[in-house]
Design brief:
single chain, two-stranded antiparallel ribbon, 234 residues
Length: 234
């Protein structure tokens, strides 16, 4: 299977230099499942010519908000809708989860409860309780008509969404392992970006086990087989 990665931004410079970009992280995540990847830097207006240029698609995370005015947002939303109409399977992570929801008629905004950073617990259909790393303040707050909630957490009601047999998206970051999150936490963030104590609160959980491999297997199975992966994955 060829997975087209729609790259919507880059991690901080220290993460990029030590671990690679989001495309590299996803390539490593899905390599055990026989998935090959090709990347388009849509953030720089590099788009595929056709939704058929890959077997399935993945929309990455980004520092940008889905609701912000950037040149790549509207054409990305158009691509998402075209891919859905053509029944090409699609997944999205964090920003990808949000922009897909927005493109399909939902709404994204900053969560009044603040940031979700580091290891969090989620209840996801087909998996039960899993622990995954998060890094976001924005959330999907209104569902698109086609979306069905298949994953939640105490601080993220719409943490995983399923759109029929075609789209499956998640808010947390399965591509961000504990070493990557540790580099995020140590990055040189400008003053005021994060409230005091938010980053330090994530550090005690860096060595706790997470379930990146389990959800990666579920997403890979979905991209091949559709919604049965969400109902029967284990």
């Amino acid at each position: 299977m060829k997975l087209g990665i729609l790259l919507c931004g880059d991690p901080p410079a220290t993460v990029l230099s030590k671990h690679g970009d989001f495309a590299a992280l996803f390539n490593d995540l899905f390599a055990p499942h026989g998935i090959e990847t090709q990347t388009w830097r849509v953030v720089d207006m590099d788009f595929p010519e056709s939704v058929s240029d890959a077997d399935a698609w993945l929309v990455t995370g980004s520092k940008h908000g889905a609701y912000e005015d950037h040149a790549f947002i509207a054409p990305l939303e158009n691509f998402i809708r075209a891919s859905y109409a053509a029944h090409h399977r699609l997944t999205g992570i964090c920003f990808g989860h949000q922009i897909i929801a927005q493109a399909m008629g939902g709404r994204v905004e900053k969560f009044a409860g603040g940031w979700n950073i580091g290891r969090k617990s989620y209840a996801i259909d087909g998996l039960g309780t899993v622990h995954l790393n998060a890094w976001h303040q924005d959330q999907v707050v209104e569902l698109p008509p086609e979306a069905e909630v298949v994953g939640t957490s105490p601080t993220c009601a719409n943490a995983a969404l399923l759109y029929g047999n075609t789209i499956y998206t998640v808010q947390p970051h399965p591509e961000l392992s504990a070493p990557v999150i540790a580099t995020y936490l140590d990055a040189a963030w400008p003053d005021g970006v994060y409230p005091e104590g938010v980053l330090d609160a994530a550090r005690p959980y860096l060595n706790a086990p997470n379930d990146e491999a389990r959800i990666a297997a579920q997403i890979a199975t979905f991209l091949r087989e559709g919604r049965s992966a969400i109902q029967t994955a284990s």
